[in-house]
Amino acid sequence: MSGGLLILLIYHGFAYSASLISEPVQACVIARDVDLTDAIRAKFAECLGWQADQSSPLCLGSYKPTTVTPLASVDEVRILADRVSFYRDKRSTLSGNVEVQQDQRVVNAQTAYVYRDAKTNEVTKIEFLGDVRYLEPDRLMIARKAVINPQDKSGITEDVLYRFNTNRNNAALPAWGRASLIRRFANKDYFLRKATYTTCAPQDKAWDIQAETLTLDDAKAKGVARNAVLRIHDWPVFYSPYLSFPTSKERKSGFLMPLAGYSNVGGFDLGLPYYWNIAPNYDMTIEPHLYSERGVMMGGNFVI
Length: 304
Description:
Radius of gyration: 22 Å
Strand content: over 45%
Number of strands: 21
Helix content: under 10%
Structural class: mainly beta
Number of helices: 1
Largest sheet: 13 strands, mixed
């Protein structure tokens, strides 16, 4: 069909396809109100593909790469499952080791439902349930439920554990966190609800941000967190109704990674640096610091 989607069904009983995602999924998705114990963090690290390496100069480890080999056609949709009840005039059901790939997006689940337009016979949406794993370049999401639209590549995931590459100069590791909902728009923007965000290793409690909403703008390479709370070692230390930060290597104004430390003189130290891209040839970093024993101090530097 001209302009439509090519769908290829492969039954696992007749063809073999190596899993594109190898990390385990059990206990990767838990209730948002559950405290993150060391055991849960260790499981999250495993689910997100964290590889411990004591010899690594950075955070004693790294993540497995998230790469996908694209299909021959961007309009092709490949579906694999143990069992398929396929219909052209009503909802189709896929069950057992379901894997759906479109271009460089791969979704795995235990069950999936395929919906078609009654007039055009085109696939309008695919709903995934149970141990959902959503993968595309630089994006990994593990969720309770997901719905994707093959026509415009938009989608929604619910109760999500995610890992996103940020491509920031000062972000040594990809960002990871949890969200009650993540919406992917057709233009590759992302919207997260009731989300956490950090670039620390999964088992590192140094800092994270909890936000009511988090928006990642692909075109502007900018993230915006609303009603955000900065936490240091699980302790809330700073609130802001609005936080903006860059998500690319380009110079953009925004908050940088929080700084935390301790000394015998100043006590506990919390810094929240803000980078101000004043012009292409000069910029400024403003660094307010809060010392538990000495109060608030302001620092910074100006670069020409």
